[in-house]
Fold each of these.
Amino acid sequence: MRYLKFKTNEYGFTLLEVMVALTIVGIAVVSMIGVMQRNILANDNLHQMTRATFLAKQKMAEIENRIEGAFDQQEGEFLPPHQDFSWRSRVTPTPITGVEQIDLSVIWGDESKQELVTLTSFIQNR
């Protein structure tokens, strides 16, 4: 009877080593997917905030330059392609005679989640 004799100095990986390596790679891939998802959500939020800031600057310029109807309205929505944004303004007097404070907020999404941009400006009374 002959017995098979294996060499102990053969090169290669054991099944256990392969399983441990695959587990480590799997954990790394899953965590990278989570990081990418958070990055995409943060990028989308920054994109919306940038659009809202530009729209707020545009609306504030209309109010400051007293473009017809812009100063009298208190709230409204933007025209397409920005129909998912709305705005609200509030004019309050200041302690300085002849100067009013304008607070303009541009809102998208849920206002309770702070999805808004607010600009403040001061102008002379009409």
Amino acid sequence: MATTTNASRTGRQSVVLAAGAIAVSDARAWLASHASGLVEADRLASLMLVMSEIVTNAVRHGDPRGEIRLAATPKDGYLCIQVTDAGPGFVPRPGAMASDEYGGFGLFLVERLTRRWGMTRENGRTRVWFEFDCCSPS
């Protein structure tokens, strides 16, 4: 069951999802509901693709019994998204965005479709964040 919070002063929206295959579609639905009116219709598919790639990585590399926390904050001209899970994270390295027999184009797509992105580790959790050009704050 998802738990949603709203920080009205900042416009930040957040939700906690159970890790698992359904988390990807739940994350897309949640983000679509919050991005409506902020993201132009012709950019919405790109935003959903980036969210799918990041949440898929959280499901694939995180704790399958854990949670995935999502947050979306409208900023001046962009939307800041955070995806946090209990996975080990990674160290970017040359060739990290190369594909292999199991996939591997996700971070390449994130790099190409976002303003910028990054990863942090804190208290045993991994947070991948990205900024998506699109909007004005509400």
Amino acid sequence: MKAAIRYFALTVGALLLLGIVLLPAQTRGAGKNMRMYDPATETSIKGTVENVTQVNRGRMTGTHLTVNAGGNTTEVVLGPAGFIADRGFTFQKGDAVDVVGSKVTMAGASYFIAREITTNGKTLTLRDKNGRAEWAGGPAGRRAPVK
């Protein structure tokens, strides 16, 4: 009986500890301190897609582009591959793109986090002007418009 009570107490304690650790990731504004997008560094680049990469991060697959803009290559982070495909967008080597986004450095590497990308006369909005991801949903279940 004592062993069962001890096991129950340890299990409840572990679950409570796990809940305390994971709760901040589920609350409103949790991404505020983890957000990669910095509106203060927003700029735009025009170039040609050299490479399309699907990057796995946990259960999500994200789309990254290597863009050659005037002889400089830039790693452009778009967003979840499913979100992009759902809006009828695909990218391939040789595509001309115009990207509005934020330059950031993470773990010593430079990235360009896309807010909007235009190709073939269509614009895909990935984030709002503050960098909030359109796929993140929200009270109205936001959906990015295709222009």
